[in-house]
């Protein structure tokens, strides 16, 4: 087979000035500039280029960029097949590099950097195979797929043999589900109606529009002020009625007991779930909240869970009813596969975190794979959708009638447009030059 080598990694600091209009504002992140350290991997074949990224809310980009620079040497010079023939081994070579490991292990900046690089490699692999990433996964033999996962520290709940059994269980019916997804798409919910910084009028207008667009589930940010949250919840309920679902997201604002107390006041608004009620590191805290709030409300978390080991414990402790994987926080497809399979074993639906910039584009591949090959069920399954910044991608994620349409282009849908990469590069792109000049003029 053609021997393709990875010859260079370039990383760009791409930022979008979303804080100007309070897009993405929540109880903890009041001024996010949605950003992506954007990785380009070139190969010995000039037409085969991989793109990947992770996500930050602005200034964090510069630190992740440096971490990616430090990991480069573990990737450049490798052949694509050397990587994909032992993907778990390659994954571990990045996460367990003897000196860099001290920065994690498998958490924080170094893990975000690992995610960006691995996302680019999955893009490269899928492009080489002329398939979207979800299809690459669907077509892979269960044994090969499982060989991409590093099972270190999770074998007490999921062994490679069990993972293969899970994948084989629904193997006979995958083509029917693939066809179904091509026709119907995967259920999405919208977060665009309920950012904290939006006015009441804007919330009403956005609810009306989202209903017209076919959404049946909505999410609002909560946690800054209870009276304000009650008012916004009743506005949303007035607009969407009681049949449609309303999820709430506290973005880690509360102490454990405070979360329980606060949610008792929001129970009348019939929340479907409470997301990130407290610190993402507090596994037993989440479990206590899950036991203590009204049983009709599920606890959801994951967008800032470090790694598969944290997810393992959340599942073991019965701390979550919804598992919110993230394509850029966990180390790419490899680690997300581990979590998807563990969630299946525990019978917990995977409802990914998305939004930001490019998170919908990436994670859609994982939900289509999950439904087609692992869960085989849509019950309580829904993927976040935020309608921002898709125009910067060559193959933007699309939601029609409240459902993600299956992407058909080759790769991970991670290619950003050349013009966007030029315009939004920090600090030298024209968009940022203008903003920074303005700040100088009116400090
Ligand atoms: Mg959230």
The name CATH uses for the topology of the domain at 171-419 is TIM Barrel
Classification by helices and strands? alpha/beta
Query: Helix count, per DSSP?
Result: 17
Question: Could you give the order of the helices and strands?
Answer: EEEHHHHHHHHEHEHEHEHEHEHHEEEHH
CATH-level-4 superfamily name of the domain at 171-419: Enolase-like C-terminal domain
Give the C-alpha Rg. 21 Å
Q: How many beta strands in the DSSP annotation?
A: 12
Beta-strand residue percentage: 5-15%
Summarize the amount of helix as a percent range.
Answer: 40-55%
Describe the global form: globular
In this entry the ligands are: magnesium ion
Oligomer: single chain
The chain-level mean pLDDT equals 96
Q: Termini, distance in Å? A: 59 Å
Describe the structure concisely for a colleague.
The chain has 17 helices and 12 strands.
Topology diagram in text:
Blueprint lengths: L5 E10 L19 E9 L5 E5 L7 H11 L8 H6 L1 H9 L12 H21 L4 H7 L2 H5 L13 H10 L4 H11 L1 E9 L5 H13 L4 E5 L4 H15 L4 E5 L6 H11 L4 E5 L7 H10 L5 E4 L6 H9 L5 E2 L8 H15 L12 H17 L7 E3 L13 E2 L2 E2 L13 H6 L6 H12 L2
Parallel strand pairs: 4-5, 4-10, 5-6, 6-7, 7-8, 8-9
Antiparallel strand pairs: 1-2, 2-3, 4-12, 11-12
Helix pairs in contact: 1-4, 5-15, 8-15, 9-10, 11-12, 13-14, 14-15
The structure holds magnesium ion.
């Amino acid at each position: 087979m053609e021997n393709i080598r990875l010859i260079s990694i370039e990383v760009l600091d791409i930022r979008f000035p979303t804080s100007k209009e309070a897009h993405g504002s929540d109880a903890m992140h009041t001024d996010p500039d949605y950003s992506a350290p954007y990785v380009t991997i070139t190969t010995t074949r000039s037409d085969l280029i991989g793109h990947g990224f992770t996500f930050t809310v602005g200034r964090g980009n510069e630190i992740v960029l440096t971490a990616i620079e430090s990991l480069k040497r573990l990737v450049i010079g490798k052949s694509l097949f050397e990587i994909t023939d032992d993907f778990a081994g390659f994954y571990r070579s990045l996460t367990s590099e003897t000196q860099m490991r001290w920065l994690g292990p498998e958490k924080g900046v170094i893990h975000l950097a690992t995610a960006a690089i691995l996302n680019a490699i999955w893009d490269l692999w899928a492009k080489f195979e002329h398939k979207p990433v979800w299809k690459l996964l669907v077509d892979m033999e269960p044994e090969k797929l499982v060989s991409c996962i590093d099972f270190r520290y999770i074998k007490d709940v999921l062994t490679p043999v069990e993972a293969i059994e899970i994948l084989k269980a629904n193997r006979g019916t995958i083509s029917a589900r693939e066809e179904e997804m091509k026709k119907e798409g995967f259920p999405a919910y919208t977060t665009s109606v309920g950012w904290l910084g939006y006015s009441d009028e804007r919330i009403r207008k956005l609810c009306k529009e989202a209903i017209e667009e076919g959404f049946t589930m909505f999410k609002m940010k909560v946690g800054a002020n209870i009276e304000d949250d009650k008012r916004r919840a009743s506005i949303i309920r007035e607009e969407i009625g009681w049949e449609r679902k309303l999820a709430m997201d506290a973005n880690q604002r509360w102490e454990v007991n405070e979360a329980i107390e606060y949610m008792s006041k929001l129970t009348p608004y019939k929340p479907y779930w409470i997301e990130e009620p407290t610190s993402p590191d507090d596994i037993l805290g989440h479990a206590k909240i899950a036991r203590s709030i009204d049983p009709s409300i599920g606890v959801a978390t994951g967008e800032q869970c470090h790694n598969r080991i944290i997810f393992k414990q959340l599942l073991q402790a019965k701390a979550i009813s919804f598992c919110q994987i993230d394509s850029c926080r966990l180390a790419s497809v490899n680690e997300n596969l581990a979590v998807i399979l563990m969630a299946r074993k525990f019978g917990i639906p995977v409802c990914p975190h998305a939004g930001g910039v490019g998170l919908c584009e990436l994670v859609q591949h994982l939900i289509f794979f999950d439904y087609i090959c692992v869960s085989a069920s849509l019950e309580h399954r829904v993927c976040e959708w935020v309608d921002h910044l898709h125009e910067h991608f060559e193959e933007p994620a699309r939601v029609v009638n409240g459902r993600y349409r299956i992407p058909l282009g080759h790769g991970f849908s991670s290619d950003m447009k050349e013009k966007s990469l030029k315009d939004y590069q920090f600090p030298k792109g024209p968009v940022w030059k203008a903003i920074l000049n303005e700040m100088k003029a009116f400090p």
